[in-house]
From TrEMBL:
GO terms for biological process: secondary metabolic process. It comes from the Bacteria. PANTHER family: 2-AMINO-3-CARBOXYLMUCONATE-6-SEMIALDEHYDE DECARBOXYLASE, ISO-OROTATE DECARBOXYLASE (EUROFUNG). Residues 21-290 form the Amidohydrolase-related domain. GO terms for cellular component: cytoplasm. This is Amidohydrolase.
Length: 291
């Protein structure tokens, strides 16, 4: 276990919350998770520095730890890096959600023939959130193959957690410009910008102010680990308050190089008030997902 784990329960109880909702947690097929951890261990080019996995446990223990923290609902963020992978991941995630009732059923997609069909099938079967990883997938979110996918998701109103910022390392299609083009075509999309769009925080805050369906998750943002390479601009804290109902707590559990409590305590350190914290850590996601 990590330093500060015992403080997590006190954090939400002192706010008068029934627990936490974490919109950015990773549960994957065992062999996929092992490859992800091996990549972090090697400090690969998308990481670029030592990144110890704090909660490197078997799946059952990871679930027990998360529930022990008081997390009432969470996701199983999955993402393909090549064609033909998304449907297999979706099948695994559907099974995981069926045996894990506190998991918001998660699905994913890739720009490929048939993507619109399997996304519509996932929506019909009850997927509640999708994950897109522009950096790992290496694709343009405005790819024509994805246009009917985004259309179906916008029509259904189902949120998509999308890693599209250029942190921890830029990709060919990362940054705010591709997302701006996407939103111009599908302005009703509910996009949850992972990691607050790190390091292009201000640009993604601009998009959130322009489009009412854009949310931001706090995953790794404001932590000591992130601030060393991509500090959040102090001048933008006021906009965090203005957009308070569209900021959601995310952790990246279990793939974080520090204790879970740290990702919560840095939010309190922003000094934006307890009402803001209550919304970010529970209320906003509860409304969005009907928890």
């Amino acid at each position: 276990m990590a330093d500060g784990d015992e403080r997590v329960g006190a954090f939400w109880r002192e706010l008068g919350l029934p627990g936490l909702i974490d919109v950015h947690t990773h549960f994957m097929p065992e062999r996929v998770m092992a490859k992800v951890w091996a990549y972090f261990d090697s400090a690969g080019p998308l990481v670029g520095r030592a990144w110890p996995i704090t909660y490197r446990f078997e799946e059952d223990e990871r679930l027990a730890v998360l529930r022990g923290f008081g997390v009432r609902a969470f996701t199983s963020m999955i993402y393909p890096h090549k064609p033909g992978m998304a449907q297999w991941l979706n099948g695994w995630a559907a099974d995981f959600a069926s045996r894990t009732p506190d998991c918001l059923r998660t699905a994913t997609f890739f720009p490929e023939d048939g993507a619109a069909q399997y996304v519509r099938a996932e929506l019909a079967d009850g997927a509640r959130v999708f994950k897109a990883h522009v950096q790992v997938g290496g694709y343009d979110p405005a790819d024509a193959l994805l246009d009917p996918v985004w259309g179906a998701l916008a029509e259904a109103g189902v949120p998509v957690v999308i890693h599209c910022g250029s942190g921890p390392a830029p990709g060919k299609h990362t940054g705010p410009e591709p997302i701006g083009r996407l939103l111009a075509r599908h302005p009703q999309l509910r996009l949850i910008i992972a990691h607050m769009g790190m390091p292009e925080y201000a640009d993604f805050l601009d998009l959130a102010q322009r489009y009412p369906g854009v949310y931001l998750d706090t995953t790794m943002s404001f932590t000591d680990f992130a601030e060393r390479i991509a500090p959040f601009p102090r001048a933008e804290r006021g906009r965090l308050m203005d957009l308070g109902e569209r900021v959601l707590f995310g952790s990246d559990f279990p793939n974080i190089p520090y204790g879970y409590a740290h990702g919560l305590e840095v939010l309190a350190g922003l000094e934006l008030g307890e009402d803001w914290l209550r919304g970010v850590c529970y209320g906003n996601a509860a409304r969005l997902f009907g928890v």
